[in-house]
Amino acid sequence: xxxYSIIIKPHLTEKSMNAIDQNNELTFVIRRIADKEQVKSxxxxxxxxxxxxxxxxxxxxxxxxxxxxxSEEDIAEDIAVKMGVF
Length: 86
Fold this sequence. Notes:
By secondary structure, the protein is an alpha+beta fold. Helix content is 40%, strand content 29%. A four-stranded antiparallel beta sheet has the order 1-2-4-3.
């Protein structure tokens, strides 16, 4: 599956901004049909980073979120700057 069809956009809230600094974690809105392995491979391909783990959640509004924990050698803040979050 194409990485651009899995990842919709970054999810920006106060909680997700804190997760970037404190947990080295990025948050994305993803397609409902995507699973954790697809999200992991899409993030690794798009941003050229190593993903340590992925957790997913479906919100009360029906939006599926992916919390992507990056490995220690990759810094989430650098990826966020490349995406234009800051």
